[in-house]
Amino acid sequence: MLNVGIGEYIISDDPSEVIVTHALGSCVALIVHCTHTKHTAMAHIVLPENSSIKNQALYKMKPGYFASDIVPIMVNYFLNELGCKKSHLDLFLVGGAVSRLSTDQFLVGQKNKAMVLHLVRSYGLKIDDSETGERFSRTVTVKVSNGHIHVKRQNMIL
Q: 137: how many CB neighbours lie within 10 A of its CB?
């Protein structure tokens, strides 16, 4: 099992592997699977945008931390490096929970979801975002061999 930590991403073509990330609250997991090459990727995205020069060191340590950085990296890898056709790509978005606090002014989960959707659509790709929002923490696994995902929901503590 390949574990994707916060701000990390993994790409694999090993059909025996399963990729997992845990405790997606406001964070989102972007999963890309190519049905032709059988490559599968997952990123654990924390924030929508890398808007500060101060964040450059964090980007180098955790390239999956910001949606604005990792979405182009992943999509371009599949389209340009692997030569996948858009019609061969299955994309899933998981997480982006709504805070249980009614005073939440940051709306990070909604902003993460919106940024990933915007970036993916800018490439002319479709994404399944049916397992986003609401007030759940999620753990998601994806089988590299076929791109099948499994989501386990947990009640959020805060």
A: 19
Task: Tell me whether strands 28-34 and 9-12 are parallel, antiparallel or unpaired.
Answer: unpaired
Answer yes or no: are the C-beta atoms of 131 and 30 closer than 8 Å.
no
Q: What is the DSSP string of 14-28?
A: -TT-EEEEEEESS-E
Q: Is the dihedral of CA 28, 34, 38, 39 positive or negative?
A: negative
For 141, the token pair is: 């696994």
Number of H helices, E strands in the chain: 3, 9
Distances (CA, A) of 142 to 54, 61, 90, 133, 134: 33, 24, 12, 19, 21
* Backbone phi and psi for residue 38, each to the nearest 5 degrees, phi listed first: 70, 20
Q: Are 25 and 113 in contact (CB under 8 A)?
A: no
Span 76-95, average pLDDT:
98
- For the stretch 37-68, pLDDT in tens is 999 999 999 999 876 656 666 656 788 999 99
3-state secondary structure (DSSP) of residue 76: helix
Structural domains in the chain, CATH included, are 2-155 (3.30.1330.200)
